[in-house]
Design a protein that fits this description.
By secondary structure, the chain is α/β, with parallel strands linked by helices. Helices cover 46% and strands 18% of the residues. It is built from 15 helices and twelve strands. The chain has helices at residues 6-12, 15-31, 35-41, 90-107, 127-141, 160-174, 198-213, 230-241, 264-272, 289-293, 332-341, 348-351, 354-368, 374-399, 403-422, and strands spanning 46-55, 61-70, 78-85, 112-119, 150-154, 222-226, 245-251, 254-257, 285-287, 296-302, 318-323, 344-346. The chain has a seven-stranded mixed sheet with strand order 9-8-7-6-10-11-12. The protein binds nicotinamide-adenine-dinucleotide (NAD). Nicotinamide-adenine-dinucleotide binds next to α8 and β7. Residues 154-157, 199, 226-232, 250-252, 289, 303-305, 325-327, 352, 355 line the site of nicotinamide-adenine-dinucleotide (NAD).
C-alpha cells in the first residue's frame, strides 16, 4: 500500500481496500504506469473523517463516525454515493471512491471518484433521527462538497429522501437552492426521470450485450440475484420484463427460490411497500445466501455488498455470465477461478455504471436548468453503456486480458493521461 502516509495506510488496510489496490497494481503494471503516478493513484487525494453527534428521540445524544473520501479530481468534480451501514469504515469508503474514479473514466464522464458513509444501522433509527443524522453529516462534510467540487448520490442504506435532506442542508448554508449538489434526488427538487432504476437498467443493458456476444437468448435464460435493494430489484424486474426467468433473489436475511421462475411483480410490490424480509413473503422456497450463489443459472447478479464471491466459494458458482451489480463482489482469487471455469464476467465498474451515468444526466439538467424526457434519458444511457461494453470487449481481445482487466486498464489509462497532460502543480 506504500509507506507514504503510514497512519493513513494503517486506517485504510481493510479487505476492500486491499482488493482495489491489488486490482490497480495489476492494471498499472500492464499499462507500464509511471511509478510516481502509481504512488499517487493508490491513495485518496483527500479523506475527511467526521464525528456526527445527533439527538436521539429519547433525548440522549449519540455520536456516529462519518467519512467522505475524494480519490481523484483530475477530470472534474468528484462523484460518488453515500453509504449508511454499520460496517462502513475508511478503507471501504476509500476503495469505493477509487472504483468510482475508474468507472467514470471508463464510461467517459467528466468526473473523478468519491464516496462517503456513516457507520450506522439506518433501519434502527426513526425517520426524525435519520433526518438529523443526514443533516449533521452534510454540515460536517460541507467544506468538501458542491456542484463543482464533489457530488454525493445514494448507495447502500440511503435513498432519494436522504438526498433531498442533503440538498436542503447544503442549500440552507449557502442561502439558495442548489439542486446540483447531489443526484438521486426526488423529482420535486430537481431529480431526473430514470434515475431510480438507472443502475438496474444499466446492468440489464450490458447483460443483453453480453448475451448477444455469446449468441445466447434472454428467453429461456435463468437469472439469480443476490441483494434485492435498489440495484438488485430493478435488475430482476427489467430482466423479467425482457423475458428472462428470475429463479432466485435474496436480501441480507436469506433468499427465495423457484426453479420455474419467481413472481417478480409481486416481490417488487412487497419490496416497495417495505414488507421484509424476503423469506417471509411467502413466494418460493426459502434458501440461504450461500445456497443462492451456488444455483445453476445463465446469469448471476451479485447486487449486495463486496467480497461475496471468494476463493472459498468461487468453485461452486454455476453461471455462464456474472454481472457485478454490487461494487467489488468478487475477490482477485475468485476472478482467476471463474475465468478458468469459462464464466463471462461483466465487471462492476462497467456493469453498475448506469447509476452514475444517469446521475451525470441529472447534474447536467440541474446545472443547465433544462430537463429531459425519460425516453431521451434511456436512449442516451443505452448508447453510452453499449459503446462502453463493446469497447471494453475489443480492448480485452486486443490486449489478451480479462474483461475486468480491460475495464480497469481503460479507466486508469484515461486518468493517467489527464494527470500527465495537466502536469504536476506547482
Ligand atoms: P440497497 O441498500 O438498496 O440494497 C442492498 C440489498 O442487499 C438489500 O436487499 C440488502 O438486504 C441486501 N444485502 C445486504 N447484505 C447482504 C448480504 N450479506 N447478502 C445478501 N444480501 C444482502 O443498496 P443498493 O443501492 O442496491 O446497492 C447494492 C450494491 O450496488 C452496493 O454494492 C452498491 O455500492 C452498488 N451500487 C449501487 C448503485 C446505486 O445507484 N444505488 C450504483 C452502483 C453500484
Amino acid at each position: 500500500m506504500g509507506d507514504l502516509m503510514p497512519e493513513l495506510s494503517r486506517e485504510l488496510d481493510t479487505p476492500t481496500f486491499r482488493l482495489v489496490v491489488a486490482q490497480f497494481e495489476q492494471a498499472a503494471e500492464r499499462l507500464g504506469l509511471d511509478v510516481s503516478l502509481r504512488e499517487r493513484l493508490k491513495l485518496p487525494q483527500r479523506a475527511l473523517i467526521v464525528s456526527v453527534p445527533i439527538r436521539m428521540d429519547d433525548g440522549s445524544v449519540k455520536v456516529f463516525a462519518g467519512y467522505r473520501v475524494q480519490h481523484d479530481t483530475a477530470l472534474g468534480p468528484s462523484k460518488g454515493g453515500v453509504r449508511f451501514h454499520p460496517e462502513v469504515n475508511l478503507g471501504e469508503v476509500a476503495a469505493l471512491a477509487m472504483w468510482m474514479t475508474w468507472k467514470c473514466a471508463l464510461v467517459g464522464l467528466p468526473y473523478g471518484g468519491a464516496k462517503g458513509g456513516v457507520r450506522v444501522a439506518p433501519e434502527k433509527l426513526s425517520r426524525a433521527e435519520l433526518q438529523r443524522l443526514t443533516r449533521r453529516y452534510t454540515a460536517e462534510i460541507a467544506p468538501l462538497i458542491g456542484p463543482e467540487k464533489d457530488i454525493p448520490a445514494p448507495d447502500v442504506g440511503t435513498n432519494a429522501q436522504v438526498m433531498a435532506w442533503i440538498m436542503d442542508t447544503y442549500s440552507q448554508q449557502v442561502g439558495y437552492a442548489v439542486p446540483g449538489v447531489v443526484t438521486g434526488k426526488p423529482l420535486a427538487v430537481g431529480g431526473s426521470l430514470g434515475r431510480e432504476d438507472a443502475t438496474g437498467r444499466g446492468v440489464a443493458n450490458v447483460i443483453v450485450e453480453a448475451m448477444r456476444h455469446l449468441s445466447l437468448e434472454l428467453a429461456g435464460a435463468t437469472v439469480v440475484v443476490q441483494g434485492f435493494g435498489n440495484v438488485g430489484m430493478h435488475t430482476a424486474r427489467i430482466l423479467h420484463e425482457m423475458g428472462a426467468t428470475v429463479i432466485a433473489v435474496s436480501d441480507s436475511q436469506g433468499g427465495v427460490y423457484n426453479p420455474r421462475g419467481l413472481d417478480i411483480p409481486v416481490l417488487c410490490s412487497l419490496y416497495q411497500s417495505r414488507v421484509r424480509p424476503l423469506e417471509e413473503c411467502g413466494v418460493g422456497t426459502v434458501i440461504t445466501n450461500e445456497e443462492l450463489l451456488q444455483l445453476a443459472c445463465t446469469i448471476l447478479v451479485p447486487a449486495a455488498l463486496s467480497e461475496q464471491i471468494t476463493a472459498q466459494n468461487a468453485d461452486t458458482i454455476r453461471c455462464r455470465i456474472l454481472a457485478e451489480g454490487a461494487n467489488g463482489p468478487t475477490t482477485l482469487e475468485a476472478d482467476k477461478i471463474l475465468e478458468d471455469k469459462g464464466v463471462f464476467m461483466i465487471p462492476d465498474i462497467l456493469a453498475n455504471s448506469g447509476g452514475v451515468i444517469v446521475s451525470y444526466f441529472e447534474w447536467v439538467q440541474d446545472v443547465q436548468k433544462y430537463f429531459w424526457n425519460e425516453q431521451d434519458i434511456r436512449a442516451r444511457l443505452h448508447d453510452i453503456l453499449t459503446a462502453a461494453f463493446w469497447r471494453t470487449l475489443e480492448f480485452a481481445k486486443a490486449r489478451k486480458v480479462s474483461m475486468r482487466m480491460a475495464a480497469l486498464m481503460s479507466g486508469i489509462d484515461k486518468i493517467a493521461q489527464a494527470h500527465l497532460a495537466r502536469g504536476l502543480y506547482p
